[in-house]
């Protein structure tokens, strides 16, 4: 245990394993590892290297700052795709980092062309909106945008779409991914004819694991790369290994009597005399306040409930009347201890959210250790 209040350990062998698993699922398509948002809280540079070692051949980010971080780390020869829109001032920086850029309208082209230096290529991927309703050009305008980009001096090297419901496997929207695929497939031949060698891509993690027919030339995988289920279930079902575990310690153990309260607002009172453990983790570290009086952590190989209100810096747990812990013992917030396991997916289900939010929320105050 380090001296940090809490530590997130990232297993790079797990990232490599998951990359290899996704690369196999992609078949003949290549794997683009999505490492935006500091690799969903796992560490972008370290996870990018592990993903490339596991079979990925390109990287995707959301901002030019994220791309610059990767280049500064020495990742010079790998393709980096910036997926979110760029401001005019960011265009030159993106081109200097030799990034490829996603465009959704013709207005995005001129700043890129204006920002380039002599002989510098402007490589763009045209995003087509097949139903996400967020970014992307309407289907019937996609070829016109691509032609305008080339006429303006850019080179169209990719065409893509993004699934809105790839992770939805039942209910009224379960078939919408298929509808999006049909719409996208309808325009692919025209793009291949017009732009020989173009890279066609659509599938995210869920799409890659759900439908081999969604792979096209490349898949873009994020959450599954880090061992979380894109479907919100048990990641081992899809042979994914969680990469992140989050550990802390019992900073203090004290006995409280029946009817004594613990924490802000007195939201919990002991039903009997019991031992309360205080852990130096709170919502400033990424342990969500909505886990007050309903979350669990692992202590001594068993699950113990979070009691009282989660505060900025501390949480309290009920160790039970027979507890033998007296302080300093390991606490596992995410990960395994003995035969028990707590996954980011389980925490997400409890909170009514997704594992993406759980891992991204682990703040910079939590020390990171990358290891095999």
Helix and strand arrangement:
Elements: E1 7-11, H1 12-25, E2 30-34, H2 36-41, H3 44-54, E3 58-61, H4 64-72, E4 79-82, H5 88-96, E5 100-103, H6 109-115, E6 123-129, E7 137-138, H7 142-151, E8 155-160, H8 176-194, E9 199-201, H9 205-210, E10 218-221, E11 244-249, E12 252-256, E13 261-262, E14 268-269, E15 274-279, E16 296-299, E17 302-307, E18 315-320, E19 330-337, E20 340-342, H10 344-351, H11 355-360, E21 367-371
Parallel strand pairs: 1-21, 2-3, 2-10, 3-4, 4-5, 5-6, 6-7, 6-8, 8-9
Antiparallel strand pairs: 1-11, 11-19, 12-15, 13-14, 15-18, 16-17, 16-19, 17-18, 19-20
Helix pairs in contact: 1-3, 5-6
Strand segment tally:
21
Strand coverage percent: 25-35%
How many helical elements? Answer: 11
Oligomer: single chain
Question: Which architecture of the largest domain would the CATH scheme give at its second level?
Answer: Alpha-Beta Barrel
Number of domains: 2
CATH class category of the largest domain: Alpha Beta
Characterize the overall form.
Answer: elongated
**Rounded Rg:** 23 Å
* Structural class designation: alpha/beta
Average the pLDDT over all residues and give the rounded result.
96
Largest sheet: 10 strands, mixed
Distance between the termini: 16 Å
Q: Report the helical percentage.
A: 25-40%
CATH topology of the largest domain: TIM Barrel
At the fourth level of CATH, the homologous superfamily of the largest domain is Alanine racemase
Stretches where pLDDT is under 50 for at least 5 consecutive residues are none
């Amino acid at each position: 245990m380090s001296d940090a209040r809490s530590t997130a350990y990232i297993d790079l062998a797990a990232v490599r394993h998951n990359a290899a698993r996704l690369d196999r699922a992609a078949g003949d398509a290549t794997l683009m590892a999505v490492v935006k948002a500091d690799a969903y809280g796992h560490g972008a540079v370290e996870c990018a290297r592990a993903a490339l070692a596991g079979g990925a051949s390109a990287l995707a980010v959301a901002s030019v700052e994220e791309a610059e971080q990767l280049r500064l780390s020495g990742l010079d020869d790998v393709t980096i795709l910036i997926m979110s829109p760029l401001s005019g001032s960011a265009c030159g920086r993106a081109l200097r980092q030799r990034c490829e850029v996603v465009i959704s309208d013709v207005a995005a082209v001129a700043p890129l062309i204006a920002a380039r230096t002599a002989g510098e290529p402007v490589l763009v991927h045209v995003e087509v909106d097949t139903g996400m309703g967020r970014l992307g050009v309407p289907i019937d305008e996609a070829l016109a945008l691509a032609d305008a980009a080339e006429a303006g001096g850019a080179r169209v090297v990719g065409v893509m779409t993004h699934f809105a419901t790839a992770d939805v496997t039942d209910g009224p929207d379960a078939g919408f991914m298929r509808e999006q695929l049909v719409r996208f497939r309808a325009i692919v031949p025209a793009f291949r004819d017009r732009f020989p060698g173009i890279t066609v891509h659509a599938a995210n993690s869920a799409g890659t694991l759900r439908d081999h027919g969604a792979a096209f030339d490349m898949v873009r995988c994020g959450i599954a790369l880090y061992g979380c289920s894109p479907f919100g279930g048990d990641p081992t079902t899809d042979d994914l290994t969680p990469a992140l575990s989050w550990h802390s310690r019992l900073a203090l153990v004290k006995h409280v009597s029946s009817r004594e309260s613990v924490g802000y607002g007195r939201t919990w009172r002991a039903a009997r005399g019991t031992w309360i453990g205080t852990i130096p983790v709170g919502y400033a570290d990424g342990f969500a306040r909505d886990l007050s009086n309903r979350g669990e952590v692992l202590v001594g190989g068993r699950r113990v409930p979070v009691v009282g209100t989660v505060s900025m810096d501390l949480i309290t747990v009920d160790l039970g009347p027979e507890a033998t812990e007296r302080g300093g013992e390991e606490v596992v917030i995410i990960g395994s201890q003995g035969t028990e396991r707590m996954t980011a997916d389980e925490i997400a289900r409890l909170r009514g959210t997704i594992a993406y939010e759980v891992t991204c929320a682990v703040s910079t105050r939590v020390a990171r250790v990358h290891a095999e």
